[in-house]
Amino acid sequence: MEPRDSRRTSSHFGRYASLDANCGVQSQTYLVRCHILVRPLAGHCLFTNFNVDVDEDILWTPANSLPIQHSDWIDDQSNFPQDTLDFVLFFHSHGQNVLGQGQVQQVFDALDAILSLPGYEAMCADSTYVDTTTNQTTCEIDGLVQFWNLDSQQFATQVSSDEETIQALSSSTFPDGTKVSPNAIFGQAQRDETTDLLTSCQGYTVVIRFPDTDAAESFEDDALDRILDLRQQWNDDSTKRLKLEVTADGSFSDEFERAILKDIPLIPIVFVIMSVFTAIIFFKRDKVQSRSLLGFGAVLAVLLSLLSGFGLLFMIGTPFTSMTQILPFVIFGVGLDDAFIIFGSYARTNPKTKTEDRIGETIDDIGISITLTSITSTLAFGLGCLSTIPAVYWLCLYAFPTVVFIYLYQVTFFIAWIVLDERRIQHNKRDCCVCITAVKEDPKDAEDEPETKVISDEEPTAQEEDRNDNAETKQPLGNMFDGFMARYAEFLLQPVVKVLVVVAFLALAAICAVSASKLSQQFEFTEVMPDDSYVTDFFYAYEDYTVRNSINPYVYFRYVDQSDPAIQEQMESYVNDLVAMDAVKEQPDFFWLRDFKAFLNDNSDQVGPLTFNQQIDRFLSDPVLYDLYGSHIVRDENGTITTSRVEIYFENVSEEDVNDQIDTLKEQRHVTARQPINQGLKEWKFFTYDGIYNIWEFYTKTQEELILTTITGVVAVTGVALIFIPHWTASLFVLPMICILYVDLLGVMQWANVHVNAVTYITVVMAIGLLVDFIMHVLLRYYECSGNRHERTVDLLKTMGSSILVGGISTFLGTLPLAFSTSTIFFTIFIAFVALVTLGLAHGLILLPVVLSIIGPEDDIPRPKSTFSSKTHNKDKMNMESNSDDMDALDEHEKQLRMTERTLQVTDHVESSTKVPTDEE
Q1: Which of these, 822, 692, 709, 801, lies nearest to 760 by C-alpha position?
Q2: Distance of alpha carbon 418 from its chain centroid, rounded?
Q3: Rounded to an integer, what distance in angstroms lies between the CA atom of residue 374 and that of residue 406?
Q4: How far is residue 713 from each of residues 298, 559, 633, 708, 847, measured CA to CA in Å?
């Protein structure tokens, strides 16, 4: 099959080159235009529409999923009492027995510290809970303090020893007659089989339920400050037996936001790191020829891209999350790749020609390359926007325009900066100190740098043209990597080395494939907390010293006549089926229907003749029963039950084993779906729900979306390569290489003990767009080079290798500050990106060149010499031809094509001749 003709693509980039040459002529104008663009996007929107979203229910729950539907119904339609803001205290002694008078006194000390805070009674006045003993509205408090009616004075009066304390704690009911739920208030409790007295206990739990009001949220902050101070005092006092842990309803969000804000200062650090790195890359010993200031311009272009992209999303109100926070580090790393490639090509042009002509030749040379990789990266993030998971969707939505802005700023702002820097050199101004003119160079120093003086208006002779053309591929980038790549290319392509490379990478792929198959899902939400978070301490202690985890879903009954005995039977049957699950140990502690039937049996003579609604009235008139079930039953104005619920406990579900959680979610759905009353219905009449279902739903969707995103991403970038790279064989290299890279990345992540979770999912989504850059630049350069396979491969490594290597290093340095993040999960991202960069460079600069040198195509792929440079170097020939009658009859477009063909003929003739051609020739 014949290679595709690339002249049409080249002609488009010839016009593109003319545009960038115009950018070079009007460099200051373009810089001003970029400033005008950034100012409203970044300046105004950053400080007006910045919105941090840390609600885990919103971030990770797939849109329109079953948990979202049930949650919306519970909040908006069920009419259950408004959820309370639970303030939880947990007391422990690192696994030791906490039974005793002194330990219980410490519990009362912590409780009194909260009850004595100013505003407590006023805040609790908005609660829906009524204390049956005092008949006053107050905040409900659950825990061992109920044995003494929440009164520390009563405890001090009634208890004088550890034995009396244990006797009181061992009771099966509280003084008001309410049954005790031991696992809810005691941690790892053990009892004497004979006396039923408690013998040991590893923890106490006390829950204070604040009303869901603004005043309560403000009070919650004050209470947290007071308890955290008390916690520190107890830690410092060796006489205190108990350790105090605390969490509140807003603790997770507050600590999540603190982690974000605490890591934001890392963004200026990455800017400094990248500025220093680029300054070193562009540095030369010569005070004038050094281009460190140009390196700073490249970093500034990326910064402007970030400000523009983020400002645009702030303007439309897109939330900023902790996942979005990782994007600046990634963008700073990958955003400089185009700058290195642009300047690398610019450095290879003839320094004797005019600057705007060199800019045109540069874009002709690498325009397709940087455009192609920008398209693939944008496409990869664009596909991520199809995700149903908001955290992933929002991150990709931020990345999508930012990558586009990077491309635009590199080909406008950075190009203009190159022109200004070139003018500085022509005026003999010092690098970084542009106001100082350098003294005449020492002859020894002058030998180290190529002459950059612009030639006169006279056109070069044929001999000078030939030398200038050859110089285009001999001008080094001027850093330590260029010499290394030249020596490296010859070493890599030795037959023995190529065999070793192929064998080594095949072995790596096989090992990584096996390793990738062992990847498991695991996510601990504490990983997104700051390292010093009190929330992390609470949940680790609660997990270690209690038998009951925090997974306690409600079972809901709706849209049915709950007075119907047949419906009641189905309700009980549903609860029994749920209890039969592996995740559940025992029947619920309190179930209104079960106790209602017991109430009817005990009072059959009094309530038997009454209607169902009247029986419910009598049932709830008991203060103890109302206290238990008043919030579990919703009735309309006629007293008819519209919906009800019962709480069960998933005590056998590991909070660390994601597969166990997914299995539990699926099993309870299977139990729910097979209930006779739910069959054939889209909206189940019986169902279970807990907030943890939101993240479990994320886990169930992760694998599906990851597979879908991977397949569509790989197919998309392969299609882009097939369209834009001027040879049909490109896709035969892109597809397998991306697949191998992807498998290797997953395998290495498994070696590093990185699990599939929310953050690694996002990393893998980004990996498609980042890994393809290492492949595309190499492939496109190979197809643009001439000669046999060996010559093409050597040429691509010499001309593009150093830019790719430096770009890979910049990506690593861009994510380096994440290693110092306050949250464990961002360090995980750093590990993943180290693997990504290492594998990308290895496959792009080692394996792919070897493969191309062995089986790369050797067809004569037409790549016309730069349209822009052809017009510049052959102006006299074009002037001679312009007087011919045939040329006058052609329009401007046809003239361009005719002169391109004539230029190719002249160039081929000059290169094949052993002597300087005569004027007739």
Answers
A1: 709
A2: 34
A3: 9
A4: 29, 44, 50, 8, 22
* Encoded tokens for 835: 């693997």
Strands 136-137 and 554-558: unpaired
Instruction: Report the pLDDT value the prediction gives residue 476, as an integer from 0 to 100.
Output: 40
C-alpha closest to that of 873 among 449, 441, 516, 353: 353
Give the chain's radius of gyration (CA, Å). 36
Sequence-distant (6+) residues with CB within 8 A of 5 are 726, 862
pLDDT of residue 494: 93
Q: Return all residues near 76 (Cβ < 8 A) that are at least 6 apart.
A: none
Instruction: With CA atoms as reference, report the closest residue to 370 among 343, 402, 392.
Output: 343
8 A C-beta contact, residue 30 and residue 22: no
- What single-letter DSSP state applies at residue 146? G
What distance in Å separates the CA atoms of residue 30 and residue 338, rounded to the nearest whole number? 18
d(CA 115, CA 544): 28
> Which pair of tokens denotes residue 797?
């490594």
Looking at residue 78, its amino acid is S
Spell out, as residue ranges, where the chain has pLDDT lower than 50: 1-17, 19, 21, 24-25, 30, 446-478, 861-895, 897, 902-921
The amino acid that residue 822 corresponds to is: T
Say if CB 569 and CB 597 are below 8 A apart: no
Nearest Cα to 557, choosing from 55, 139, 915, 73? Answer: 73
Residue 22: its pLDDT value, please?
Answer: 53
H or E element, residue 385: none
76 vs 133: CA distance, rounded Å: 32
- DSSP letter for each residue of 203-251: EEEEEEEE-SSHHHHHHHHHHHHHHHHHHHHHHH-TT---EEEEE-TTH
Q: Which of 313, 413, 334 is nearest to 376 (CA)?
A: 334
Is-contact 126 219, C-beta < 8 A?
A: no
Model confidence pLDDT, tens digit, residues 646-659: 999 998 888 777 88
Give the DSSP H/E element, type plus range, for residue 645.
strand 641-647
> What does the alpha-carbon distance between residue 814 and residue 808 come to, in Å, rounded to a whole number?
10
Q: Which pLDDT value is given to residue 436?
A: 81
| Closest to 530 (Cα-Cα) out of 260, 247, 756, 327 | 260
pTM of the model: 0.71
